[in-house]
Amino acid sequence: MSTHIGVIGIIIQDRAKAAPKVNRILTDFGSLIIARTGLPYKERGLSVISLIVEASTDQIGALTGKLGMLEAVKVKSLVVKPCV
Predict the structure, then answer these.
(1) What is the CATH code of the structural domain delimited by 4-82?
(2) CB within 8 A of 6, min separation 6: which ones?
(3) Chain centroid to CA 63: how far?
(4) Which of 82, 53, 40 is CA-nearest to residue 63?
(5) Half-sphere exposure of residue 65, counting CA atoms within 13 Å on the CB side?
(6) How far is CA 23 from the centre of its chain?
């Protein structure tokens, strides 16, 4: 199974409601995550998380799919060619 390097952007619009669920999902997929950066944007009432991942397209899809099903969470991903 080939792996890809990808970037996943997550915006949490209701931190109190969604952050614990997001963190649980990220923990479940922790073996795929190379780096994680989080920024609370209090002026806008948002939290922004960026992830660098190395995984198959199926694994990246599973991660973003679970995140995308959460209320008050928006997620986008960018994936590059398979790693050698």
Answers:
(1) 3.30.70.1150
(2) 52, 53, 54, 55, 60, 77, 78, 79, 80
(3) 7
(4) 53
(5) 6
(6) 9
The residues spanned by each domain of the chain are 4-82
Whether 35 and 52 have beta carbons less than 8 Å apart is answered as yes
CA–CA dist 20, 74 (Å, integer): 15
pLDDT score for 46: 94
| pLDDT score, position 14 | 93
Q: pLDDT by residue for the chain (84 residues), tens digit each?
A: 789 999 999 999 999 899 999 999 999 999 999 999 999 999 999 999 999 999 999 999 999 999 999 999 999 999 997 766
